[in-house]
């Protein structure tokens, strides 16, 4: 009897440790993705703050982001390790992040900050769909309900701003959303995929294209400090998103990322004087409420 009691005591302690580790992993994932959303929300401000053309911004932001990331990896002693772990999933992430950036920056130039951000609000549905198709991961009931609520918020915003957005910018924002959702799914499927190196290489990947389609060496020197800061912000946001995505279901990662939408709208109002419509305010509030609610409710399965 004593042996049986000790066995179950050890088993109970082991289960508690596993549950605690799982909770810590999920909490860390939530914090990382929220930080990423907060930092990413400033992208529209950096892009519209300077008159520099989109491809020139992509070049200097890329040089800065790649440099900061490589320095970060070198100082942490992780550069060689990330190179060794760089496999096909990391290559896929690199390409998708590069394509996302190539459309993300021009989208802000062709449309409003709030409009691009609200289109990114569709990311949970894109990520959930890709997860279901490619990794057979169904969203929990909580995430599904919250996603429907977030979609309602996006619909409210779109219904009040359809006439003010430019179709080309909106289409670029939609493609960017697809690429970012794809990276979330890859990290969920292959959680050991490196995070920082693909983010840096995605910036390097775009440098030849930026030279081909832009004139980065002709960019005003007064704009360069802003673009360097943009690169630092992008590096931080990309790494935190990647690290968070490997700890959470794809749909939940995308759902938390929609926090960027109301935050970007607020920053656009305060800094760029882009006044949101009542529909944008209502839709943003619904999305924010959906994200908060999804984190307070039990994560029960479907």
Structural class: mainly alpha
List segments where confidence is low: pLDDT < 50 over at least 5 consecutive residues. Answer: 1-18
Q: How far apart are the first and last residues' alpha carbons, in Å?
A: 40 Å
What shape does the CA trace take? globular
The helix/strand series, from N terminus to C terminus, equals HHHHHHHHHHHHHH
Share of helix among residues?
Answer: over 70%
Gyration radius, to the nearest Å?
20 Å
Measured by DSSP, the beta-strand proportion falls in under 5%
Strand element count? 0
Q: How many distinct helices?
A: 14
Describe the biggest sheet? none
Average residue pLDDT: 80
What do these coordinates show?
By secondary structure, this protein is an all-alpha fold. The protein has helices at about 1-40, 45-50, 55-75, 80-85, 90-110, 115-120, 125-135, 140-160, 165-190, 195-215, 225-245, 250-255, 260-270, 280-295. About 80% of the residues lie in helices and about 0% in strands. It is globular. Mean pLDDT is about 80; it is low at about 1-20.
In short, what is this structure?
The protein is mainly alpha-helical.
Keywords for this structure?
single chain, 14 helices, mainly alpha, 80% helix, disordered N terminus, 302 residues
């Amino acid at each position: 009897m004593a042996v049986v009691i000790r066995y179950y005591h050890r088993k109970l302690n082991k289960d508690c440790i596993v549950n605690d580790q799982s909770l810590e992993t999920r909490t860390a994932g939530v914090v990382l993705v929220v930080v990423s959303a907060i930092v990413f929300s400033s992208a529209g401000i950096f892009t519209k703050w300077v008159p520099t053309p989109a491809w020139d911004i992509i070049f200097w932001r890329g040089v800065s982001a790649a440099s900061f990331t490589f320095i970060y990896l070198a100082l942490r002693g992780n550069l060689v390790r990330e190179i060794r772990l760089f496999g096909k999933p990391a290559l896929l992430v690199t390409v998708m992040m590069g394509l996302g950036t190539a459309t993300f920056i021009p989208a802000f130039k062709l449309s409003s900050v709030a409009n691009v951000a609200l289109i990114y609000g569709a990311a949970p549905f894109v990520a959930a769909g890709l997860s279901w198709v490619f990794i057979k991961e169904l969203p929990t009931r909580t995430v599904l309900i919250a996603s429907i609520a977030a979609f309602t918020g996006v619909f409210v915003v779109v219904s009040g701003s359809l006439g003010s957005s430019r179709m080309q910018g909106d289409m670029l924002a939609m493609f960017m959303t697809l690429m970012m959702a794809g990276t979330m799914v890859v990290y969920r499927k292959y959680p050991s995929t490196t995070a920082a190196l693909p983010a840096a290489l995605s910036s390097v990947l775009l440098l030849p294209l930026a030279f081909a389609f832009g004139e980065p060496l002709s960019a005003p020197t007064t704009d360069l400090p802003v673009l360097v800061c943009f690169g630092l912000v992008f590096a931080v946001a990309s790494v935190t998103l990647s690290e968070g995505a490997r700890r959470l279901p794809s749909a939940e990662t995308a759902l938390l990322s929609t926090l960027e939408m109301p935050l970007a709208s607020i920053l656009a109002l305060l800094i760029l004087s882009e006044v949101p419509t009542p529909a944008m305010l209502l839709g943003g509030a619904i999305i924010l409420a959906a994200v908060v609610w999804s984190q307070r409710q039990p994560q029960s399965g479907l």
